[in-house]
Amino acid sequence: MKKLFFSLILLAALVSCKDSKSKSETTESSDETSQIFFNGDIITMDAETLEYVEAIVSQNGKIAFAGSKEEAEEKFGDAELIDLKGKTLLPGFIDPHSHFAMVSNTMGQVDLNPEPVGTVKNIPDITKRMKAYKQENNIPDGEWIFGWGYDDGQLVEHRHPTKAEIDAVLPNNPVYLQHTSGHMGVANSMALKEMNVSASTPDPDGGIIERMPNSKEPNGLVQETAMYPFVGNMLQILVKDHARHFDSTQEYYAANGITTAQDGMTDRNTIRFFQSQADAGKLKIDLIALAGYAELQSNLNDTTLQFKTYKNGFKIQGTKIVADGSPQGKTAFFTKPYLTEVPGCTHDCRGLPSLTQETINELFVLAYGRDNQLFVHCNGDATIDMIIKAHENACNILNQPLDKDRRTIIIHAQFTRPDQLETFVKYKIEPSFFTNHAYFWGDDHVKNLGKERADFLSPMVTAQRLGLKPTNHSDATVTPVNPLFTVWTAVNRVSRSGAIIGDNERTTPYQALKAITSNAAYEFFDENLKGTLTEGKLADFVILDKNPLKVAPMDIKDIQVLETIKEGVSIYKK
Ligand SMILES: [Zn+2]
Predict the structure, then answer these.
(1) Which of 175, 210, 239 is the last residue of a domain?
(2) Per the CB 3.0–4.6 Å rule, which of 84, 227, 387, 438 could disulfide with 501?
């Protein structure tokens, strides 16, 4: 599915190359005055422990001063005074890992997610929302309408909607609703007809067209390969609006307090599309892409691709490798077996790596030989063992020190072992954790992996104690973009059922904030540019209605972003 999506993005990239003014021009011309922010909780994130300053001065897109209000006023007499009225100001949030392009893809669809991502509770909520979307957007009869994120397990009916239920509200539009898992969806009668799926259509290999009771008539649910034509059609239609969605996507990130976003696996055509948007002055936030490993050799040969360097707010930081699957899908690769049944496996079911040791070794040698930063998706501990081996092998072959400052990032590192964290310290490898799993799948992990492994999921506290600089991400669209939700899961580690997933790994709000500010800047070699409120760094700020360090830990997820400021310019205001 991902491949299809990326090749469709290519279409958008080909038709969207325009040239106009650069981002730096826009920023400078719109920000000539200085501003003093004061009378709030201004958290610098510039120290191991909590530090507040009275005032922060933004001038020409940069932080000109952080300290007492008196000194700020003395030094910047002409500055505009901005009274925070007791609100909280922090460095703008840096997204350590999400998929900007995938989030963009959801912009042209109806949000059918259950809480806390959305608000859908039952099937009537879904049908009402679909109908309202047609009315509000004046969608003519015959045009496709898409929804995403519904979850039968979270609906009060505990089942999928049927084609009849969708037909009842939208009889004259083809409709397709994508399930939250990305493995199935529901089509209405018109959509089934358009995609030529009927009673006489056999189930494709590896897929199921669900039927009505005692009948061959499809009921609307299409699973796995039976879903592919519907998804292919959907992406083809959505991609036409890609440039428009690019704007709404960055606005969405900005509304979540994010001033630097990531696209966590980007092909060459999408990289060109992003750069063209940046060069056209369209970026309001910074965007960092991780190039896909399949194109590593061609990317390294391409002299027009410059890694690690911002151009008009966009940079390609390094290369993303996907080394295993997901723990909830039981495709993450472990040294010890899953405790529950693994589909298609009868003996020693430990999941599977996505790549062989040999391929990973080759990628590491290629990347390390050219100083290309690696971001490796690993969930299971056996995959992390393979990465450690590849690291040692590449250093050996290239005669490089094991502890060179490369900042190889293990993305997710969810089920890393304590001994592996110690190796990370020795080799200057950093983990980017995914504590949102404690909430969304924590209960499943306890069942499938046992309490001991589940409790050590994304071990923020142990990593911090060892001196690592862990970040913590949403992996959106897998979980919500909202960085304060990642702070909430890191601090509370409460599952959907209310269980605590690893009491010892519940971190402090301050450390959880570091994971989306200073540590995240470090992950991208941006520590001299952003991540803390320090003189000389970019004036990237987020203003919150409440202080995450002062509210009750369970209330952190309800904190509102009031304003987001990028290089001194307000880009979002509630
Ligand atoms: Zn990802």
Answers:
(1) 239
(2) 438
Ligand 1 centroid to Cα of residue 40, in Å, is 35
Q: Domain check: are 232 and 218 in the same one?
A: yes
For residue 52, the tally of other CB atoms under 10 A from its CB is 14
Contact 384, 422 (CB under 8 A): no
Candidates 376, 495, 511; CA nearest to 445 is 495
Cβ distance 360 to 293 under 8 Å?
no
Tell me the pLDDT tens digit for each residue of 487-534.
Answer: 999 999 999 999 999 999 999 999 999 999 999 999 999 999 999 999
Tell whether 209 is covered by a domain: yes
Cβ–Cβ < 8 Å for 572, 254: yes
Q: How many CB atoms lie within 10 A of CB 49?
A: 7
From the CA of 99, how far away is ligand 1's center (Å)?
Answer: 6
Q: How far is the CA of 104 from the centre of ligand 1 (A)?
A: 14
Distance 72 CA to ligand 1 centre (A): 42
Range of the domain at 160: 99-239
DSSP-derived letter for residue 140 is: P
The three-state secondary structure class of 108 is coil
Q: How far is the CA of 251 from the centre of ligand 1 (A)?
A: 21
**Residues, CB-to-ion distance under 5 Å, ligand 1:** 264, 475
Is residue 9's pLDDT more than 60?
A: no
Ligand 1 centroid distance, CA of 379 (Å)? 11
Domain ends where: 179, 213, 239?
239
CA of 60 to the centre of ligand 1 (A): 35
Residues 378 and 456 placed together within one structural domain of the fold: yes
Instruction: Tell me: pLDDT of 4 over 50.
Output: no
pLDDT confidence of residue 3: 36
